[in-house]
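Researcher: Please predict.
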Amino acid sequence: MTDILVADDSALDRTVIGAVLKKRFPDANVMAAADGWEALELIKWHRFDLIITDLMMPELDGLQVVQEIRSRELDVPVVLMTGSGNEEIAVKALRAGATNYVPKRSLERFLIPTVESILALAQLDRSKAQLLSCLSESQNKFTIGNDNSLIQPLVAQIQDQILAMRLLDENDVARLTIALSESMSNAILHGNLEVSSDLRQEDESLFHSLADERRTQMPYCQRQVFVTVALSATEVRISIRDQGPGFDVRKAADPDQPVDLERIGGRGLLLTQSLMDVVYHNASGNEITMIKFAKAKTPAVTSDVDRNQTEITNNK
């Protein structure tokens, strides 16, 4: 049985969120906490598969809940529910160990897909992980077309290897796979197909319609995405390169500045910057490299970063 905890100081919101979760996951055990303190007390005595917490709560907010969970070294994913104006705190919570965020005004759009993605990780096939545990170092290269249906199988393959090699705990793997999924989607939709995120903000159905058209049009249909995954005892390094024209990396959002978390465009880059340890693009902006340092390791200074490449962020 799946156990989910919902923490929110609004009784109405707790009821609504619980009903949405039960409708999609009828066999789940959904428990509720009226504030951060009650949530932490329940966590003491119950093992949850997922925690969904409001960011802004009196006395103990969502950021503090995340910090306390990580200080106890509890391996449980936490999803934040954010409101407008909470951007800076939400980014801090992502860096502190939260797995993802869901804008409260867009719960219908983001909540269930987010929960489904996180819970899918918990169903990892342990027998496959045991077989992969023999790996001590690995490098794989994938070349895929503009087919979004291939993203999740690729993500699953990568997460299996990372967990089997015990490079990261399950929460960090969940965070990495979110960043990977977002970056892969960006490479296909914004890179190869050149569909603007501004259009998605204005009309999501028109955005996807244009993307589908371009999958069969020249020159977009011939473009591919190249993914390189290097796993070692010290780090997970993933590079994703598309064949689009790229973008001006100097205009990339600064994760330390206030950002509209409810805006669809830019959400993927914000998540990637907040969830990974190092993120940088090449000079032309059509390749992103993401690094997550292995647990219990002190990373050496990265020496092989091309000086002509533009580093976007280093959260360590």
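Model: The first strand starts at residue 3 and ends at 7.
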